[in-house]
Design brief:
- The protein has about 230 residues and is of the alpha+beta class.
- Helices cover about 20% and strands about 25% of the residues.
- The protein has four helices and nine strands, in the order αβααββββββββα.
- Strands 1-9-4-3-2 form a five-stranded antiparallel sheet. The protein has a two-stranded antiparallel ribbon with strand order 5-8. The chain has a two-stranded antiparallel sheet with strand order 6-7.
- Strand 6 (about 165) and strand 7 form a beta hairpin.
- The two termini are about 30 Å apart.
Amino acid sequence: PHPRSLHRTRRPTPPRHPVMASAVLASSVAVRGTPLAPTAAGKRTPVRAARGRAVVTRAGEIAGLTECGKFQELCKAEIPGKIPRHDFLKQMYRYMEISYGDNGLAQYGKRMQVDLLSNGKDGDDELTNGMLVTLFGNKDGEEVEICELLCEMDLELVPIYDTLMPNSEGELVKTNRSGKDEFVNGRYFVIKRPVPVDETANPALKQMIKDMTLAINKYYAFGSCFSDDN
């Protein structure tokens, strides 16, 4: 079920500051790559150009490698349970379309393409679990894909509550008026990239993720990633 709409006059307390990517981006790995995540219907799939020569480090020196060994986790931000995931992801998609899709070359020195990731339901493009940002660079005079950045909610179920009620011992405990356990999907908004990686994308990625965490914090505080624009 969809979480209830957030009351704009009472923003939840911001969680811990998002884990930043600087240390992780200082080290990469040379291992086998993984298939591109499917994109939502109606969105064009990024062209897979040759990656060219990537600057990599040995597998034993990887930082931020996920348990499956297929991705390097660059950053994650805990999203409070009361924040509607659908609204948050729609705003982040709009932010990425403008900041990366429209202005990636001017702001970060890389042309970029932004796609919605499918939630696996045909004909339901509005419901998404995240975005895919593809960065392009120049190698030997040709434009090639140098990085795929996946920005999505994880799959953890987060309990939510709407009231306090006394238990059998008279202590106040968190619960729901419905009397049922209620959850939202996703605790963390995770930013990761498949391996092997092309480290020529690192300078752009560091600044992109720094700016993205600022946009997330604006959403926490004001209910909009674009609070400075209003």
